[in-house]
Specification:
Elements: H1 6-9, H2 11-29, H3 40-66, H4 68-78, H5 80-100, H6 106-131
Length: 132
């Protein structure tokens, strides 16, 4: 049986979170005050974008489920199902976080920005894997 190495497949996402942790410590040390970019109108726009991402993930999941018999080996080789699963979960966590976290502190702004950036990166990574 093949050993699955999850860290290998998600290096980009882990690197993104590390960058935002460093950004958080720099913001604290420089006493930088983030502008209030997460007002209600911007939150609605960001959530709308991620709802579209979720819908696209669901479309691809449906397509893969329908064609699973013919393309089973191909999709397993590309690791599409893993990227679909983690990408969908990540986008849903991002949507819930945007809705329920109030961006009043530097930490909450960094958390929101890192989740948004990471969800976008994961989505584009999925598209690149899909196009191979």
């Amino acid at each position: 049986m093949k050993k699955i190495n999850y860290l290998k497949d998600f290096k980009l996402e882990i690197l993104t979170y590390i960058i935002f942790v460093i950004l958080y410590y720099l913001a604290i040390s420089l006493k930088y005050d983030f502008p209030r970019v997460f007002n209600d109108k911007n939150k609605i726009n960001i959530i709308s974008i991620f709802i579209v991402f979720t819908a696209l993930y669901m479309v691809f999941i449906s397509i893969i489920i329908v064609s699973i018999i013919g393309n089973c080996e191909r999709s397993l080789e590309k690791k599409l199902e893993r990227q679909l699963f983690f990408g969908t979960i990540e986008v849903l966590i991002t949507i819930v976080t945007i809705i329920y976290i109030s961006p009043t502190t530097t930490l909450s702004n960094i958390v929101l920005l890192s989740l948004i950036c990471n969800s976008i990166l994961s989505f584009f990574k999925f598209l690149i894997i899909l196009m191979k």
